[in-house]
Amino acid sequence: MKEKKILKLFGMFGLALALVGLGYWWGQSDNNGVHANPSTRQSMAGMEGMEAAGVQEMASGSVNVSPEKQQLVGIRTAPAEFRPLTKKIRTVGIVTYDETKVAQVFTKVEGWIEKLFVNYTGKLVEKGQPLFTLYSPDLIATQDEYLLALQAKESLVSSSLQEIRAGSASLLETTRRRLSLWDISDEQIAELQKSRQPKKNLTFFSPSSGFVIKKDAFQGMKVMPDKELYTITDLSTVWVNADIYEFELPNVRVGQTATITLSYFPNRPFTGRVSWISPVLDEKTRTTKVRLEFSNPDFSLKPEMYANVEINVDTGKGLTIPDEAVLDSGLRKMVFLDKGEGRFQPAEVRLGGKFDGYYEVLSG
After folding, report:
1. CA–CA distance, 359 with 364 (Å, rounded to integer)
2. Backbone φ/ψ region at 345: left (φ over 0), alpha (ψ -120 to 50), beta
3. The dihedral formed by the CA atoms of 75, 76, 80 and 86, expressed in degrees to the nearest 10
4. Taking Cα atoms as reference points, which of 108, 41, 7, 1 lies closest to residue 319?
5. What is the pTM of this model?
6. What is Dmax (Cα atoms) for the chain?
7. How many Cα atoms within 13 Å fall on the side-chain side of residue 43?
8. What's the pLDDT band for 345 if we cut at 50, 70, 90?
9. What are the structural domains, with CATH classification, of the chain?
10. Mean pLDDT of 177-200
């Protein structure tokens, strides 16, 4: 019958470790042909006390521990077995904006704000919602140019000269493109073409839906093309920036599931995913920034909130042993195999990652 190898677990007291370790050392000394000197013989005499205590070393390096002594010192055994290699990496994070959903509003043309429709920070706006009206001499002049080009095209459409017809069409398209580049919408250009009257004030609209997180627009103020008037961000999706320690980075992958909880909502977890891992390590904290992405349809997650983060790691299945079964000397990692009838055999193992109280065994 094939012998079943059971891993020895060291339980309660350092006494068990000392006894077994001493027996292993004596066994290794015998195997290497080391002969005892007089002082060593005195130590060997102490082994008689170990035998009397129910622990006997063997020539192979294994030791015998009587069942009574195993129970006394709390020695336990557990099988090496295949199990799912899963764990949770826990850290903290801060909620922030999704930078891909932040829009800035500029006029791109010099002028004066005549009327504000969105006049305070924090207002929720929809895409296409009016923000303000602007009076600009440049816009009025360009509207006039557009109307003249439109009139010229219509009057020359029946010209027998192809060059003249093409020139008038090109002029009209040039003025139309200039208006578009100044963020005048197609609907406003169509209204200008229909009314044939330039408008003194043109309305500027929100480029996206979201909250106004910055407002530097005031009624009557003069604006320049480089002046940022509004910053609008869509909070239907938010990011959480978390710090992951260096030794945990090999277990983190883009696309992994992540969960956050907040003190504001203790019984409501939010589920998202890892969307980005920084290529740079902080030399002082030995951590790397990891970005998590979360859906936020009801805007419960607000920028600058603190969050408790759990990243779920799943690397499949593997052979595992309990972490308390491993004796780590710093150079080697050892376990003891239960050979039956109170005999324990030392074995060196090569370990992989640690998963919730278990080590993955790579070899040994």
Report:
1. 13
2. beta
3. -110
4. 7
5. 0.69
6. 125
7. 10
8. confident
9. 6-79+326-363 (no CATH), 87-98+235-316 (2.40.30.170), 102-232 (2.40.50.100)
10. 92
